[in-house]
């Protein structure tokens, strides 16, 4: 039986937690007297919490003591967690279950490959935790995308060669990480942004099970 490893990013691919990050960062930036719009938010996608706060402070030309910096990071995370605590399976993005179910039925190994340290909690909230054969998240990796570490670890967990893995990603850094890992990259979002991906779809409603079967047989 032919097997491929299917690796999914979390935010913006399976669920849209990006909107919660946006709200929490915007509230934090505003409390520091810094403007924060969707434009700035785009630049924080796939970026660690520390680097995100550093960027916001640069934009506002502000400096914080180390204690204040840690305090503000914790505050942002608390607000973000209060949003994800209210999540349920209605937050799974359209047609993601169709593709996951097809992979499960086809006995294809599935892993999460996310920078989020809250990935396990989110998957439990939306009742997808048991769908994944492996979960590699921000607690298992030290290098941020576009470094391929997260996806290489996921391939290892699935006992698959990197070149036999397919990655679903919504960020430029994520697509680059998949390419750097020598995996097939599938961008979820705008083709103009994710043009480095091998394939790009606006969302999972555009992905057919026939296409998935072709990837398996490739």
Descriptive labels:
single chain; 218 residues; alpha/beta; Rossmann fold; DNA polymerase, domain 1; 2 domains; 9 helices; elongated
**What's the CATH class of the largest domain, please?**
Alpha Beta
Percent of sequence in beta strands = 5-15%
Named CATH architecture of the largest domain:
3-Layer(aba) Sandwich
If you compute it from the alpha carbons, what radius of gyration comes out, rounded to the nearest whole angstrom? Answer: 18 Å
What overall form do the CA principal axes indicate? elongated
CATH fold descriptor of the largest domain: Rossmann fold
Structural class: alpha/beta
Number of helices: 9
- Going by CATH, what is the homologous superfamily of the largest domain? HAD superfamily/HAD-like
Helix-strand sequence: EHHHHHEHEHEHEEH
Total beta strands? 6
What can be said about the biggest beta sheet?
6 strands, parallel
Alpha carbon gap, first and last residue: 13 Å
What fraction, in percent, of the residue positions are helical? Answer: 40-55%
Question: What is the overall pLDDT average?
Answer: 95
Q: Could you say how many structural domains there are in total?
A: 2
Strand order, sheet with most strands? 3-2-1-4-5-6
Low-confidence stretches: none
């Amino acid at each position: 039986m032919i097997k491929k490893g299917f690796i999914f990013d979390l935010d913006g691919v399976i669920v849209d937690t990006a909107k919660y990050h946006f709200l929490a960062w915007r509230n934090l930036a505003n409390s520091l007297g810094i403007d924060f719009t969707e434009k700035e938010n785009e630049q924080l996608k796939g970026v660690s919490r520390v680097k995100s706060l550093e960027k916001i402070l640069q934009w506002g030309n502000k400096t914080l003591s180390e204690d204040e910096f840690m305090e503000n990071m914790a505050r942002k995370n608390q607000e973000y967690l209060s949003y994800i605590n209210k999540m349920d399976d209605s937050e799974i993005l359209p047609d993601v279950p169709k593709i996951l179910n097809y992979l499960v039925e086809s006995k294809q190994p599935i892993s999460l490959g996310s920078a989020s340290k809250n990935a396990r909690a989110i998957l439990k909230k939306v009742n997808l935790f048991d769908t994944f054969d492996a979960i590699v998240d921000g607690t298992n990796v030290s290098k941020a995308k576009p470094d391929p570490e997260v996806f290489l670890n996921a391939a290892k967990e699935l006992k698959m060669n990197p070149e036999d893995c397919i990655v679903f990603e919504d960020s430029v850094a994520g697509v680059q990480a998949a390419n750097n890992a020598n995996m097939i990259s599938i961008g979820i979002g705008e083709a103009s942004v994710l043009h480095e991906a091998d394939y790009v779809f606006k969302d999972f409603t555009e992905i057919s099970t026939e296409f998935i079967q072709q990837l398996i047989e490739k």
